[in-house]
């Protein structure tokens, strides 16, 4: 088939037909492989679940069971919170107004954890700082090309820069 003599429309039709055929081939291959696997499983007396486990979730983790609520909004009894995750706005507002989680707890649920006192928490000793690293050599690595001197070694750095410039000049000629 000579593609040079075909129009853009004809080429688009060929491309679309090729894509359809490719999809058909993939489906046929998949069906063939499935049939082979099913035959092997039947011959061995096994099931897919026995070999691979329950895969109905699509490889995702099973959803967790809902946790029973521990706190209820006194103004709107339909609003509850399990105590997990971010605090709902109504809990934060109640805590700001001076209430505690114990005031919001649903009767018969586990006792709420002690509310943290506002503040910074226990004082910690600051870690000791490591001494600053000093550059070794006349110029720190990576600075030779720019000629920047390191910590008071400007005179030596300029000398190194001059030598480097002389070497470049000799290479060019």
Helices and strands, in order, run as HHEEHHH
| Count of runs of 4 or more consecutive helical residues | 5
Low-confidence stretches: none
- Tell me the overall shape: flat
Helix content: 40-55%
Task: Kindly provide the radius of gyration, computed on alpha-carbon positions and rounded to a whole number of angstroms.
Answer: 37 Å
Total DSSP E strands: 2
Instruction: Give me the secondary-structure category.
Output: mainly alpha
Mean pLDDT: 77
User: Order of strands in the sheet with the most strands?
Assistant: 1-2
Give a summary of the structure in a few sentences:
The protein has 173 residues and is mostly helical.
Describe this structure in words.
The protein is mostly helical and 173 residues long. Helix content is 42%, strand content 2%. The chain has five helices and two strands. It has helices at 8-44, 48-52, 89-96, 101-104, 154-172; strands spanning 71-72, 80-81. Strands 1-2 form a two-stranded antiparallel ribbon. β1 and β2 (80-81) form a beta hairpin. The two termini are 60 Å apart.
List the main descriptive attributes of the protein structure presented here.
mainly alpha; 173 residues; flat; two-stranded antiparallel sheet
């Amino acid at each position: 088939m000579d593609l040079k003599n075909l129009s853009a429309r004809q080429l688009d039709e060929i491309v679309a037909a090729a894509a359809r055929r490719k999809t058909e081939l993939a489906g046929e291959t998949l069906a063939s492989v499935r049939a082979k696997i099913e035959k092997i499983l039947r011959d061995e007396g096994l099931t897919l679940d026995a070999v691979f486990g329950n895969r109905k979730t699509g490889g995702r983790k099973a959803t967790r069971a809902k946790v029973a609520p521990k706190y209820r909004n006194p103004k709107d009894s339909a609003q509850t919170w399990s105590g997990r995750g971010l605090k709902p706005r109504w809990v934060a507002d109640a805590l700001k107004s001076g209430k505690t989680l114990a005031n919001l707890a649903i009767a018969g649920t586990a006792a709420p954890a002690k509310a943290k006192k506002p503040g910074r928490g226990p004082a910690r000793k600051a870690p000791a700082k490591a001494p600053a690293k000093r550059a070794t050599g006349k110029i720190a690595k990576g600075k030779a090309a720019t000629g920047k001197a390191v910590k008071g070694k400007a005179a030596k750095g300029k000398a190194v820069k001059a030598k480097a410039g002389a070497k470049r000049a000799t290479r060019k000629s």
